[in-house]
Design goal:
By secondary structure, this protein is of the alpha+beta class. It has 22 helices and 57 strands.
C-alpha cells in the first residue's frame, strides 16, 4: 500500500549564513501540523519548511549561554506551534517563540523575463510563498532535578526528572497585561505541581523504583509514558479535590485518553492551597509488560541486600519507542532487541493486552540494532520504524512493505551518500504521507544528515470506495498510477515485466498551490479520475486525455473536499466544506468547473466521514453518527439528490471517525417492489470500523424500531473488496486482507436466505490465501489477485539507492475450487470453473489445484498413516471427478505427475486410472504431445515393453502429423533409455522417418 519510489533527496542542513560553524544535527522535531520542522545542534536551532524544503529562520546561542545553561540536547514544539522548548545538558529549559510574519516572504525570487520564467515553474507545493518567521529567546526555566523528557501542552509544560524521580508541571509564562487576569485563573487551576514516582503517589506503576524516560502526547489526546525499566503506560491527568464536596469536580480540564480501568496517584502542589483548591493526580495502566527471568530477580534481591550491583541485565523486550494509532486502536512498541510489537488498546477485561510480534524480513541476517524512532502515518495504515542500523515500513497487519535490511550492499563505501540505509536516529511523515523525512547520525561531514524519501501509496488509504478497489490505483506526489493490465491479453497480466501502469500527471498549476493530495477517486470503468488537494478539485478523462480545473481561482480556493469523491457515470459527487458549512456537490464531466455549473447542492448539518455508491443509491455517513440514504435522480436538464431517509448508529458505532469503508445490500423484493424510503430499515450494512470488518443485519422489534445483529468477520482488516456481482459462486463474496492473508467469505453478502435468527452467526471464513506481496485489486473475471512489492537497486557506480515497485500476481481460482471440492460441492466447482476455461492459464490453475491436493494428502498420510483414505474417498477423488468435466484433464494429470515425486504417483494413478490407458486415450484423440508426456511416466513406472512399441506407435503418429519437434524429442528419449542405440535403430526401422528425410533432402 506504501512503496518507496525513485530516490531520496538529501538536504544540506548547515545554513548558508556567514560565520556559521558547521555542527552536526543532534535531533529534529516536526511541528504539530507537519508543515515545519526544526533542526537542533549543540548551539543553534533552525526552522525548516517541509515543502519546499528550505530553512526559514535560524537562532544561535551565545558562548555565555552555553556555559551557564549547558549545550542543547533535545527540542519539542508546543501544540499550537508558537513556541519551541529546548532541553539542555544542565537541565534548563530554554523557551523560544516562533513569530509568523504575515505578507512577507522569506525568499525573494530573482527577476526574470516571461520567456525565461516559463522554464522555472513551481513544483508540487511550491506555489505558495515561503512565509517569513522569526525566532526569539523568550526565557530560561531552571528545573528541579535532572530533566529527562519534556512534553509541552496548551497551557503548561510537563517534564520528567531523575534525582529525585518525578513528573512535574509548570505553566507557560505570560507577559501580555491583557492576559494577566486570565493567567491568574489558569494558574489557580494549573500551577506548578510535582508527582514523585513511588507506591503512594503512583500506585499503578508495576515497579515504582523507576524514572519516566519519555513523556509522549498525541494530537488525539492519548498520553503515554516509557519508564526506565522498559515498560510503557497509558496515562492521563485527572482532577480531584481534597474536600467533602466531591460532586464539584470539573472533569473538563483533564486530558482525555482512550484508556479505562485506571488506578490513581495524587499531586504535591508547590504552593499552599485551600481546602477547595483542586488537586491533580495521574491515572495509568500498563500497555507493555514483560517477565524478568528468575535468575535476574534473584540476583537483584541479592544485590539489594548486599548493597552492591554485580551485573547489568539488558532486557530484550525493553521499550525504546512507542507509537499510538488512534484510528485503529493500536499501539506499536519498539524494543531494545529491535523487534516490533503490536498491541491493542487495553480493555476492562484485560489490563495488559497480548502483543503480536511483527515478523521482520532479514534475508542477509543483518543486525538491526535497537529501535530509535517510530511513527504512524496520519491515515493510520503504515508504521515507519528506524533502527540504529536501518529502517522499515510496516502495514497495519504487520506486513513489511519496505526495508533497508533486505537490500544488497553492492555499493562503494567512499562514494555512497544514502546514509539512512544504514542508520536512522529519527523520522516523521510529511503532510499527505507522500514523503518520509529521516535524520541520520552525524558522519565525517557535519552536513546532509536529513533525507526525504518519496512514496507511492494506494488511493484506498485516502478513500476506501468500491471503485477505488476495483482497479489497482496508486497515488504519488504529483501523479496518479492506474493499472491497465486487465485490458491487456491474459499473458500480459501474469508477466511481471509488462508495462501495465498508466502514469497520469496532475496539472502543475493546481498542484503548486494545493499540495498535498487528500482524495483520489476512480470511476467504475476506470476512465475518469478526480483529485482533491488542499483546496478545490480537478478531474481527468483518459478518453480525451484532458484535465478540467477551475478557471476562477477564488472559487477553487473557497472550499475544500472533506469526506470523499465518487463518480456516478459522468457526474462527480463531492463532499465539501465551505465557510464552516457542509455540502454535497454534483459536477458534470462534460461541463467546465465553476460554481455556476454545479448540478446540485445538498446542505448537511455535520461533516461527511465517508461516501459510498451502490447502484443509484448514495450513502452518506456523517460525524454525528448518522447514515443517510440519497437517491440519485436524473432529470431532463440536470441530476439531483433525493433524501430517502436516515438512521442513527448511536450505541453501535462508538467513534464515527473510525469508519473506513461502507456499503449495503438490499433484498431483491425491496429493490423491485419496495419504496426507497424503506431501504434503510431492511438493508444489511457492511462497514470497516477501526480495522474490524463488521456486518450489521437489521431486525425490527415490536415497536417497529430497527435494531441490528452485529457480526464481526475479522480484526485488523486493512482493505476489503465487495463483489455483489461476482462470477458464479463468487457472487456476494467478501474479500479482506489482514496484512498476511487474503481472507474470503463466499456468499457472505447473500441476504435472501437469512431467515433464521441464528443465521447471522453462521457465516464462516471460506478461503485464506497467503500472499508474498501486497494486494491492490482482485480481477474477478481473470481469477487473479494483482498487487505490488517494492524493489531497491544498488550499484557500485551510484552513490544512491534506486526504488521502484514491481507488479505481482497470484491465481486465486484453485483456492476457491479446492474449498468447494473439500466440501463435496463438485457441481458448484464445475459451474465456477466454466466461467474461466477460456483463459490461457486455465489449465495451469487446474494443475496447481491437483498438485496442491496431492501434496497435501501425501503429507497427511506420512504424518499419520491411520488417516489414509480409500481411493474412492477424499478430496483427491473429488478433484479427479471435477477434472473429468474439462478437455484439459489429461494434460493436467500428466503435468502434475511430472512435477511430483514418484512416491506420490501410486496414490494419484490409483484414482485417475492406469497411465497406459490414459496414453491410449491420448493417441485416440490425437493429443500427441500429451501422449509423449505419458510415455515418460510409463517409462518411469517400467510399463514399456522391450521393443518400445508404444514409443514406436507414437513416433509413427507424429510422422504422419508432421510434428517434427515431437519426433526429435521421441528420438532423443529412445536414445536416452538405451545407450547402445538398439532401441533407436529399431524405432527407425519400424517407421518411414529415415526414408522421408532422404526424399525431402534434395
Amino acid at each position: 500500500m506504501y512503496f518507496p519510489t525513485s530516490a531520496a533527496r538529501q538536504l544540506l542542513t548547515v545554513p548558508a549564513l556567514p560565520d556559521i560553524t558547521p555542527e552536526p544535527v543532534l535531533c529534529f522535531e516536526a511541528s504539530p501540523r507537519k508543515s515545519l520542522f526544526c533542526l537542533l545542534t549543540r548551539s543553534s536551532l533552525t526552522v525548516w519548511r517541509v515543502r519546499p524544503s528550505a530553512p526559514l529562520a535560524h537562532i544561535s546561542r551565545s558562548e555565555t549561554s552555553l556555559i551557564e545553561h549547558g549545550d542543547n540536547t533535545a527540542v519539542t514544539w508546543s501544540p499550537d506551534g508558537s513556541r519551541i522548548v529546548i532541553q539542555t545538558t544542565m537541565s534548563y529549559l530554554i523557551l523560544v517563540t516562533v513569530d509568523y510574519v504575515p505578507d512577507v516572504s522569506a525568499y525573494q525570487p530573482s527577476h526574470m523575463g516571461p520567456s525565461v520564467q516559463r522554464n522555472f515553474l513551481p513544483g508540487a507545493g511550491e506555489g505558495i510563498p515561503l512565509q517569513s518567521l522569526s525566532l526569539a529567546l523568550e526565557g530560561v526555566i531552571c528545573t528541579e532535578g535532572q530533566v529527562i523528557s519534556v512534553s509541552p501542552r496548551k497551557n503548561y509544560i510537563i517534564f520528567s526528572t531523575s534525582s529525585p524521580p518525578t513528573v512535574q508541571r509548570i505553566p507557560w509564562p505570560v507577559y501580555d497585561e491583557s492576559e494577566i487576569e486570565e493567567q491568574t485563573t489558569r494558574r489557580s487551576l494549573m500551577g506548578h505541581d510535582t508527582w514523585i514516582l513511588n507506591d503512594h503517589e503512583l500506585p499503578w506503576l508495576l515497579y515504582p523504583d523507576v524514572t519516566v524516560t519519555k513523556v509522549l502526547h498525541s494530537i488525539s489526546g492519548v498520553e503515554t509514558w516509557i519508564t526506565s525499566d522498559g515498560r510503557a503506560y497509558f496515562v492521563r491527568l485527572q482532577e480531584s479535590r481534597h474536600s467533602e464536596d466531591v460532586s464539584e469536580i470539573d472533569e473538563e480540564e483533564t486530558d482525555k485518553s482512550s484508556t479505562s480501568n485506571l488506578a490513581n496517584g495524587s499531586s504535591r502542589p508547590s504552593t499552599d492551597s485551600s481546602g477547595s483548591q483542586p488537586h491533580y493526580h495521574w491515572e495509568g495502566t500498563c500497555i507493555h509488560d514483560f517477565d524478568v527471568p528468575r535468575w535476574v530477580q534473584k540476583q537483584r534481591s541479592t544485590d539489594d541486600s548486599s548493597g552492591q550491583s554485580s551485573s547489568t541485565y539488558i532486557e530484550p523486550r525493553r521499550a525504546m519507542a512507542i507509537a499510538v494509532n488512534t484510528r485503529f486502536s493500536l499501539v506499536a512498541v519498539g524494543t531494545q532487541s529491535g523487534s516490533i510489537e503490536f498491541t491493542s488498546f487495553p480493555t476492562q477485561d484485560e489490563l495488559t493486552p497480548t502483543p503480536k510480534v511483527v515478523e521482520i524480513p532479514n534475508p542477509y541476517n543483518r543486525s538491526s540494532g535497537s529501535v530509535t524512532a517510530m511513527e504512524w502515518s496520519s491515515d493510520g495504515y503504515v508504521l515507519a520504524v528506524g533502527w540504529t542500523h536501518g529502517w522499515a515500513i510496516f502495514s497495519l497487519g504487520g506486513r513489511c512493505l519496505a526495508s533497508s535490511l533486505g537490500v544488497e550492499d553492492h555499493i562503494d563505501g567512499d562514494r555512497f551518500q544514502d546514509a539512512f540505509m544504514h542508520a536512522v536516529e529519527n523520522l516523521f511523515w510529511a503532510p499527505g504521507n507522500f514523503e518520509l523525512v529521516v535524520l541520520t547520525p552525524s558522519g565525517i561531514k557535519p552536513d546532509g544528515q536529513v533525507f526525504v524519501l518519496p512514496f507511492a501509496k494506494s488511493a484506498t488509504t485516502c478513500q476506501h470506495s468500491p471503485d477505488n478497489t476495483r482497479y489497482a490505483f496508486l497515488q504519488m506526489d504529483d501523479r496518479a498510477l492506474v493499472y491497465r493490465g486487465a485490458e491487456q491479453p491474459d499473458m500480459s497480466i501474469i508477466n511481471p515485466e509488462s508495462d501495465v501502469w498508466q502514469h497520469i500527471k496532475i496539472p502543475q498549476s493546481y498542484l503548486a498551490t494545493n499540495w498535498p493530495i487528500k482524495y483520489s477517486a476512480l470511476s467504475s470503468d476506470g476512465r475518469l479520475i478526480a483529485i482533491a488537494g488542499r483546496r478545490g478539485l480537478v478531474h481527468y478523462s483518459s478518453t480525451s486525455g484532458r484535465w478540467k480545473i477551475f478557471s476562477n481561482m477564488a472559487q477553487e480556493q473557497a472550499f475544500t473536499v472533506k469526506g470523499g469523491l465518487l463518480w456516478f457515470h459522468h457526474v462527480l459527487i463531492a463532499a465539501v466544506e465551505i465557510s464552516k458549512s457542509y455540502q454535497i456537490r454534483l459536477y458534470s464531466r462534460d461541463m467546465e468547473l465553476s460554481n455556476q455549473n454545479v448540478l446540485h447542492r445538498e446542505v448537511l448539518m455535520s461533516p461527511v466521514i465517508i461516501l459510498s455508491l451502490v447502484d443509484n443509491s448514495l450513502l452518506v455517513y456523517t460525524a454525528d453518527n448518522m447514515l443517510s440514504h440519497y437517491l440519485i435522480i436524473p432529470t431532463a436538464d440536470t441530476i439531483k439528490l433525493h433524501l430517502c431517509g436516515s438512521i442513527t448508529f448511536d450505541g453501535i458505532i462508538a467513534l464515527p471517525s473510525a469508519v473506513r469503508a461502507l456499503s449495503w445490500m438490499i433484498p431483491n423484493a425491496q429493490k423491485r417492489l419496495g419504496d426507497p424510503v424503506d431501504d434503510l430499515s431492511v438493508a444489511t450494512v457492511l462497514m470497516v470500523v477501526g480495522g474490524q470488518l463488521v456486518l450489521l443485519r437489521p431486525r425490527k422489534s415490536g415497536t417497529q424500531e430497527v435494531n441490528y445483529d452485529m457480526q464481526i468477520f475479522a480484526e485488523r482488516i486493512e482493505f476489503c473488496w465487495i463483489h455483489l456481482r461476482g462470477i458464479g459462486a463468487l457472487e456476494n463474496s467478501l474479500w479482506g486482507y489482514d496484512g498476511q492473508n487474503m481472507r474470503v467469505w463466499l456468499n457472505a453478502l447473500a441476504i435472501e436466505s437469512s431467515g433464521s435468527a441464528d443465521e447471522p452467526s453462521s457465516v464462516k471464513e471460506s478461503v485464506s490465501i497467503p500472499l508474498d506481496f501486497y494486494p491492490l485489486s482482485v480481477l474477478m473475471d481473470k481469477g487473479i489477485i494483482i498487487g505490488a512489492e517494492h524493489e531497491a537497486a544498488t550499484r557500485m557506480n551510484l552513490s544512491f539507492v534506486m526504488f521502484r515497485h514491481a507488479t505481482s500476481s497470484h491465481l486465486f481460482l484453485h483456492h476457491v475450487l479446492r474449498y468447494h471440492l473439500e466440501s463435496g460441492q463438485v457441481k458448484e466447482a464445475v459451474t465456477l470453473a466454466k466461467h474461466y476455461q477460456h483463459l490461457v492459464f486455465f489449465a495451469h490453475a487446474l494443475e496447481i489445484l491437483l498438485h496442491t491436493v496431492v501434496e497435501s494428502e501425501s503429507t497427511i498420510d506420512s504424518e499419520d498413516p491411520s488417516t489414509s483414505t480409500s481411493p474412492e474417498s477424499g478430496t483427491l477423488a473429488a478433484v479427479i471427478e471435477f477434472l473429468d468435466h474439462f478437455d484439459a484433464s489429461l494434460d493436467v494429470v500428466v503435468g502434475c505427475a511430472r512435477k511430483t515425486e514418484m512416491t506420490r504417483w501410486k496414490r494419484l494413478f490409483s484414482i485417475v486410472g492406469n497411465p497406459h490407458a490414459l496414453f491410449e486415450t491420448c493417441l485416440a484423440s490425437k493429443r500427441l504431445k500429451t501422449a509423449g508426456s505419458y510415455l515418460l511416466v510409463l517409462h518411469n513406472l517400467e510399463q514399456l515393453d522391450e521393443n518400445n512399441k508404444d514409443a514406436v506407435r507414437l513416433l509413427n503418429c507424429a510422422v504422419k502429423a508432421q510434428d517434427w519437434q515431437l519426433c526429435r524429442e521421441l528420438l532423443r528419449f529412445l536414445h536416452s533409455i538405451d545407450d547402445t542405440g538398439k532401441a533407436l535403430r529399431h524405432a527407425l526401422s519400424e517407421t518411414s522417418l529415415v526414408a522421408q528425410k532422404c526424399v525431402m533432402a534434395p
